[in-house]
Amino acid sequence: MKVVDVADMKISDSPDEELITYALGSCIGICVHDPVANIGGLLHVMLPLSTIDPDKARDNPFVFMDTGVPRLFLECYKAGARKERRVVEDAGGASLLGDPENDVFCVGKRNFTMLRKLLWHNGLLLKSYDVGGTLSRTMILRVGTGEVIVKTNGTSTLL
């Protein structure tokens, strides 16, 4: 099992491996999987736009959606994944401050919106997602099967 930290990304071509990330609050976890090549990638993104801190984006592109997602796709391609076969799923984007309707920063919502825009501009759709609410999530990608499991408050769900 490979752990993906906050503002981190891991790629695997080992069918027996699992990629896991914890503490997806307002952050978003994005899984990419190529079922033919058995390549999987998991990215844990904190914020939507790198324009707030270009230096930080240069140092670690995985902090931001607009710089992290392209790197995730490129690294998966380098490992042998094909664009036309990739499956994208995500989880997170919660409002941990309580009522999502009164969350003035809306970081989780903005993260999810930015992801959808990036995918749309590249002609992609999400296969499935588990976003919003007020609870933190754990996300697991089983590289060999492409199964994505989301754990929330002690309950596991297969996306």
Please, could you describe this protein's structure?
It is built from three helices and ten strands; from the N terminus they run βββββααβαββββ. The protein is of the alpha+beta class. The chain has one domain: 60s Ribosomal Protein L30, Chain: A (2-Layer Sandwich). It has a five-stranded mixed β-sheet, with no helix packed on it. The chain starts with a strand and ends with a strand.
Secondary structure tally: strands: 10
* Cα radius of gyration in angstroms: 15 Å
Global structural class = alpha+beta
**Number of helices, where a helix is a run of at least 4 consecutive DSSP H or I residues:** 3
Query: How much strand?
Result: 25-35%
Residues in helix, %: 10-25%
* CATH third-tier fold name: 60s Ribosomal Protein L30, Chain: A
Average pLDDT number = 94
The helix/strand order is EEEEEHHEHEEEE
- State the domain count: 1
| Stretches with pLDDT under 50, minimum 5 residues | none
Please identify, by name, the CATH architecture: 2-Layer Sandwich
* Strand order in space, largest sheet: 1-3-8-9-10
Distance between the termini: 19 Å
